[in-house]
Design a protein that fits this description.
There is one protein chain. The chain is of the alpha/beta class. It has 3 domains: 149 residues, Spo0b-associated Gtp-binding Protein, Chain: A; 166 residues, 3-Layer(aba) Sandwich (Rossmann fold), CATH 3.40.50; 67 residues, GMP Synthetase, Chain A, domain 3. The protein is built from 8 helices and 17 strands. Strands 3-1-8-5-6 form a 5-stranded mixed sheet, with no helix packed on it. It starts with 5 loop residues before the first strand and ends with a strand.
Length: 417
């Protein structure tokens, strides 16, 4: 399966079912009264984080994801069936965005986020029966479900992120440190997608995960080379390991890497330096680097020199970070509750848009217009009464509306009277 870390598509929740207009016709019950049931709610579109998926490829060709529509209500007070939800499994570490920004960060297995809620079902005529209105012959229509364009972004979760210039030996180092077997070649950019490896030793209290990303070059944070696209994958790493080719200007390499991390907004993350390919150095150069890079591990991924010591060094750094962050060694995290707060226009607003044309906006009246069964005279009369109760008729008269003028509420247009 191809590694894909971004996807765009539209999510569309199900429409709520319409209520029913029905009257009890059972034998020996001549005055059974209204018994129309309400419609079922529409299905929702839900994202769920799972561990056995490492790519967004299943969604790269999707255009629209639709949930099921709620069924209409029926007689004998039967409620329509709820529309089927659509559960979209995504890799752990997936960020969910819409046009307004981040909606959810699914960083734990099993976490779920409702990206589009289904529309609620409309009430049947049984719900409108009162002591003075015993035989209502109208119902409510179901509301449309939410719809939004979604962007998914995958950020690989790891404890340690290997960052280095092309051909610094990161892939070889990942293979030496873990059981991972990434592609290794004697040329730059052998790593085209992030690779993960797990370090597991009996002496460690817990395993840790290492991520290798494509090599960075100067200007990577501005879009040059391959590293810019994959810098996001080390953004979640708890510790960044700057892997430097000890045989090729290590001081300059460190300066370049730190500059790119700073430009990418990652300069405040905990970092460590690793000098690789020391097998290419003579003893004099190795001693020089010990002075130039004090307490920096010197290793050779090719020969295995210093690799075991590097494993222990990284494990100690991670445990120290645990203590600094004040969390347990198991790094247990509580499941985040994802809620999206969006400013909604709940108040009424009436304005004149053209001669003899007026527009009414507001969440409550727009929902009322959508729920109204415009083919039912009783339903239209109820809509008129509700507008009077909410003060909409009075507000329209204040701005100059006359009988026969056109009024628009959401997508509904009607004549003012």
């Amino acid at each position: 399966m191809q590694f894909i870390d971004e996807a765009w598509f539209v999510v569309r929740a199900g429409h709520g079912g319409d209520g029913s207009v029905s009257f009890n016709r059972e034998k020996y019950k001549p005055h059974g009264g209204p018994d129309g049931g309400r419609g079922g709610d529409g299905g929702a579109v839900v994202f769920r984080a799972v561990e056995d998926l490492q790519t967004l490829e299943p969604y790269v060709r999707r255009k629209v994801v639709k949930a099921g529509r709620g069924r209409h209500g029926s007689g004998n007070n039967r409620t329509g069936e709820k529309g089927a939800d659509v559960i979209l499994d995504v890799p752990v570490g997936t960020l969910v965005y819409d046009e307004d920004g981040l909606l959810a960060d699914l960083s734990q297995p099993g976490e779920e986020f409702v990206a589009a809620k289904g529309g609620s079902g409309g009430l049947g005529n049984a719900a409108f029966a009162t002591s003075t209105r015993r035989t209502p012959a109208f119902r409510e229509k179901g509301l449309p479900g939410e719809e939004r364009e979604i962007r998914l972004e995958l950020r690989v979760l790891s404890d340690v992120g290997l960052v280095g210039l092309p051909n610094a030996g990161k892939s070889s180092l990942l293979a030496a440190l873990s059981a991972a077997r990434p592609k290794v070649g004697a040329y730059p950019f052998t790593t085209l997608t992030p690779k993960l490896g797990v370090v597991d030793k009996k002496s460690y209290l817990e395993t840790f995960v290492i991520a290798d990303i494509p090599g960075l070059i100067s200007g990577a944070s501005e879009g040059r080379g391959l590293g810019n696209r994959f810098l996001r994958h080390v953004a979640r790493a708890r510790l960044l390991a700057l892997v430097i080719d000890a045989s090729e200007d290590p001081e300059g390499a460190e300066t370049t890497l730190r500059a790119e991390l700073h430009a990418a907004g990652l300069s405040k993350k905990p970092t460590m330096v690793v000098l690789n390919k020391v097998d290419l150095l003579d003893d004099e150069l190795q001693w020089y680097l010990r002075d130039a890079f004090p307490e920096v591990p010197q290793v050779s991924a090719l020969t295995g020199q210093g690799v075991e010591g590097l494993q222990d060094f990284v494990e100690q750094r991670l445990r120290a970070l645990d203590e600094q962050e004040g969390i347990s060694i198991s790094r247990t995290k509580s499941v985040a509750e994802h809620r999206t707060f969006r400013p909604t226009r709940k108040g009424l607003r009436v304005e004149k848009v053209e001669e003899h044309k007026y527009e009414v906006s507001g969440e409550n009246v727009e929902r009322l217009a959508l729920r109204t069964d415009w083919e039912s005279p009783e339903g239209v009369e109820r809509f008129q009464r509700e507008l009077e109760k909410k003060g909409v008729v009075t507000m329209l008269k204040r701005v100059g509306a006359q009988p026969g003028d056109e009024v628009r509420i959401g997508e509904i247009e009607f004549g003012f009277r």
